[in-house]
Structures are given as structure tokens and as C-alpha cells.
Write a structure and sequence with these properties.
The protein is of the alpha/beta class and 463 residues long. The chain has 3 domains: 5-14 and 80-199, 3-Layer(aba) Sandwich (Rossmann fold), CATH 3.40.50.1000; 18-71, DNA polymerase, domain 1 (Orthogonal Bundle); 208-452, TIM Barrel (Alpha-Beta Barrel). It has helices at residues 18-33, 39-46, 50-56, 61-71, 86-95, 109-117, 136-144, 159-167, 224-234, 251-266, 286-294, 330-343, 358-361, 366-381, 412-419, 440-452, and strands spanning 5-8, 15-16, 81-82, 99-103, 125-127, 152-156, 171-175, 188-190, 208-212, 238-244, 272-279, 300-304, 307-308, 321-322, 350-352, 385-389, 399-401, 404-406, 425-428. Strands 9-10-11-12-15-16-19 form a 7-stranded parallel β-sheet. It has a 6-stranded parallel β-sheet with strand order 5-4-1-6-7-8, sandwiched between helices. It is elongated, with a radius of gyration of 26 Å.
Length: 463
């Protein structure tokens, strides 16, 4: 179900503020009573509401005033921080024709935070001192802006938030990353903020990218963690690292696996990280691929056919001819032969940029069209997805067709033919820099998929 009008709670939903609030309270009690209270206990109570905290600790009026002076100081350490995905999420709601509102029990300090975070202009209107879960102020706001209640949704991280939505008879989304709230009237429950993209009318947006490289391939930039942070900001729910197989020093692959595994754990509450490899058809290394899958070292493999090599199952790859060198018809048969043998191993989740032969061949003619039909039938018969890759858009190489130059891949005419077959498609950033998770190339593959009305699979659920 998609919604147009989003009413966001502030603390814990837009803003990571509970450490700030809890520290202010713990320090207040330490200052006044000279005792150390349990931080986690206070934290959990604040996640319910302030009244619960004051009641449990029997807070006196003057203690509450001291606490408020700390908590309402936006510079009090640790400072509250805007969650990484929020700014982009709010912009995407507006881009999809929706509107953002704030629905909070917080008072006027909210405006200081909105100015600090530079997001004031992303909200149509704001409710402060909302008196949740009483629905009156929320309903008044809906009436004020003449909103259809069926298109409205409240988003929050506490029972009070979704209870306010329930009392107003509108939908509620509960953000409960640790599954600690058992009794509620939420319409939906999410564990990661980026899952909110599932409720926005944004067709042909990449929410899960399974094709990401690292500096280990020697033609990418940015640290592993920079890719993760950029993905979270951009709104990805899944980031699949699929760097090239590192040969001949196979041990480098294990260092890569270990690095991504650490990030997978560190950011487990914000994004789902997958570990994979993009590999060639190297007969010598097929047993190694099989071992990686059997031992669950990788979540999946994707096939990237960047060239052809001499067939030899007992020695490492020799006489590699890369696609940049595909300058005559002879190489097209070699390309398909290599692709066919790779597909027959049944090791690959999907085929990356199946049209990348055009990068070297550079022509869209009868030979290229005939090869495309052969590729399409091969993918159809083996139930393999075909990727629209952003990497080709970034290439300096071009294909001359009908008097104009086009990116070699994804090439529109190629995918027009694939659409004639029973094939599903994936959208892959093929990112070699963190910013390539949301650059013009990504916009291009999304717009091309939309233009051709391709049957796109946005989430690979069986990884």
C-alpha cells in the first residue's frame, strides 16, 4: 500500500535523540541525588514516554526543570543526529507527489533542530505538543489541509505514535528495529528506516543494489564503509558487494569477505549487506566457485563476461581477450560460447551487463542482432535475470546507431529484443565509487526500464 501524506514522529524516528535525552536524565539524577541509575533501563523507559520515566524514578519538579534545561539544549553532548536516510527519504516523498508533516509531543525546540538539520522546507506543516495518543490535533491538521485519510499514514517508533494513528482511524507504521513493542495497533511494522520506501509510489527506483565494487579491483575508489554509508543515505534496503574475483592471489578474496562481514554486523539495523563476487568463466576456478557457495562464503555469484580466454581446465586463465578488443565478427561467437558455458554451470544468480560486447564491437548490425536473440533464448531457457548496468553509461566508448552515439550498455535496442522473451530484469548500479550509487547512470537505467516497461525484479529474495 502506498501513501501520499506522511506524519512523522521526531525523536527516534527522524532524529536519533535517545542517547542525548537519556544522558541528560542520567546526569541530572547523578547531579541532584548523587546516585548512578541504570542507563539502559532509563533509555527503554524514554522509548515509552517521558511520563513513564518521571513516574518510575519519582522525579520532583525541580529535577524535571534541570533535566529539561539539559535535554532542550541542542548542543548538549551527545548531540542528537538526523538519521542518515531521512533527508533523501523526505525529498523522495515530495518527488512522488506527496507531503511531509511532523507529529510530535516535543515542544518548540523542534524548530531549532529543523534549522540545524536544514530540513525545515521539506515539511508542509508541523504539529508540536501533540498530546499523543489523543487524535484531535492530528485530525485537525488533516482537515486543515483537506487530506484524504486513506492516503495518510503516521510513522513513529513508539506505541504512542501508532496509537494516535489508530485513534484517528488512519494507517500507522511502527519503526521497531529490535522488536521490543509487542502490543500495538500499527498497520505495519518495519525494522529499517529505508523500508519506508516500500510505501512511496516510486516505480523503477533501485531499492536493492546487488552490484557494487571496491578498491580491490584496482579501478574503483572509496572505502568499503563509504559505500555503505552512501547506500544508507540514498535509501537502499540492500547493498550487495560483488567485487571481481581476485586472482592469482586467492587469499585476497578472504580479506574482502572479512571486511564486508564486519560492516554487515556494524550496520545490521540500518541496511542488509550481502557478500558476493562478479566472476568470469575461468574453467580452472570453477571448483573454487563451487566451494565458496558450498561453504556460504558468498551469498551469490554474478557472471560478468568481460572477454574470452583459452579453454584450459588445468592451468590458470591464459590469452585473455577483453571486450574492448572485440573489433570484428569473429569475437561475437567466442563471446556467446563463453556465456553459454558459464550458464551451464548453474552457479550464477544473474548475468551482469549481457550486452557489454557492444563496448568493443561498437556496431548494431545483423550480427549483433542475431547474437542478441541467441543470448535472449539462453537466458530464457535457463531462467536467468538480465542486468541493466549503470557502468556502460559511464563509459567513454559509444555505439553509433541511426546517426547518433549511445552508451554501449545498457543498449536500448538490445533490451527491446530481450523483452520479446520470457526474461526478468535487474537494475545494477555497477558502482565503482560511492557516489555512483545515485548518479546519472542510475537514473538512466531506471528511466530505460520504465520506457521499455521491463519486468524488473527489485529484490532477490532467495539470497
Amino acid at each position: 500500500m502506498n501513501y501520499k501524506y506522511f506524519f512523522f514522529d521526531f525523536d527516534g524516528m527522524l532524529c536519533d535523540s535517545y542517547d542525548h535525552i537519556t544522558t541528560a536524565f542520567v546526569n541530572t539524577i547523578k547531579q541532584v541525588r548523587n546516585i548512578n541509575i541504570n542507563y539502559q533501563e532509563a533509555y527503554d523507559l524514554f522509548k515509552i514516554n517521558f511520563e513513564e520515566v518521571f513516574k518510575y524514578y519519582k522525579v520532583l519538579d525541580y529535577e524535571e526543570k534541570i533535566f529539561n534545561s539539559y535535554y532542550q539544549d541542542i548542543n548538549y553532548y551527545p548531540k542528537a543526529q538526523l538519521y542518515l536516510p531521512i533527508k533523501n527519504l523526505l525529498k523522495n516523498i515530495i518527488a512522488s507527489g506527496g507531503k511531509n508533516f511532523i507529529y510530535t509531543n516535543r515542544g518548540t525546540t523542534l524548530y531549532e533542530y529543523l534549522k540545524e538539520f536544514q530540513i525545515s522546507d521539506l515539511f508542509t506543516d508541523i504539529i508540536i505538543n501533540a498530546n499523543k495518543p489523543d487524535p484531535k490535533i492530528l485530525l485537525d491538521m488533516i482537515d486543515k489541509h483537506h487530506l484524504n485519510k486513506e492516503e495518510c499514514v503516521v510513522v513513529g517508533d513508539r506505541f504512542l505514535d501508532v496509537e494516535g494513528a489508530y485513534n484517528a482511524k488512519i494507517a500507522g507504521i511502527l519503526y521497531d528495529e529490535e522488536s521490543k513493542i509487542f502490543f500495538h495497533h500499527a498497520t505495519y511494522v518495519i525494522k529499517k528506516i529505508n523500508q519506508l520506501y516500500n510505501f512511496i509510489d516510486m516505480p523503477y527506483k533501485i531499492k536493492n543494489n546487488y552490484h557494487t565494487h571496491t578498491t580491490r579491483c584496482n579501478h574503483a575508489i572509496g572505502s568499503d564503509e563509504e559505500y555503505v554509508i552512501e547506500a544508507i543515505k540514498t535509501g537502499y534496503q540492500t547493498l550487495g558487494f560483488s567485487d571481481h574475483l581476485m586472482i592469482p592471489n586467492i587469499n585476497l578474496n578472504y580479506e574482502y569477505f572479512d571486511s564486508i562481514a564486519l560492516l554487515k554486523e556494524k550496520y545490521r539495523n540500518q541496511i542488509d549487506i550481502k557478500i558476493a563476487l562478479e566472476v568470469e568463466y575461468y574453467p580452472y576456478y570453477i571448483p573454487f566457485y563451487q566451494k565458496l557457495i558450498a561453504e556460504h562464503k558468498v551469498d551469490y555469484l554474478i557472471f560478468g563476461n568481460h572477454g574470452t580466454m583459452a579453454e584450459n581446465e588445468t592451468t590458470r586463465p591464459e590469452k585473455i581477450c577483453f571486450i574492448n578488443e572485440f573489433n570484428d565478427d569473429y569475437y561475437l561467437d567466442l563471446y556467446f560460447d563463453c556465456l553459454s558455458k558459464a550458464v551451464n554451470t548453474h552457479l550464477f544468480k544473474y548475468i551482469a551487463h549481457p550486452d557489454c560486447f557492444l563496448k568493443g564491437y561498437g556496431k548494431w548490425n545483423e550480427k549483433a542482432i542475431a547474437l542478441t536473440h541467441k543470448i535472449a533464448k539462453l537466458l530464457q531457457d535457463n531462467h536467468l535475470y538480465a542486468e541493466l548496468s549503470g557502468s556502460g553509461y559511464r563509459s567513454r566508448k559509444k555505439v553509433f546507431y541511426n546517426g547518433e552515439y549511445y552508451p554501449p550498455y545498457p543498449f536500448k535496442e538490445f533490451f527491446k529484443i530481450l523483452k520479446e522473451y520470457d526474461i526478468k530484469f535487474v537494475l545494477g548500479c555497477d558502482a565503482h565509487a560511492p557516489e555512483q550509487l545515485h548518479d546519472e547512470a542510475v537514473e538512466y537505467i531506471c528511466s530505460l526500464a520504465k520506457e521499455l516497461n521491463l519486468d524488473v525484479v527489485y529484490e532477490l529474495k532467495d539470497l
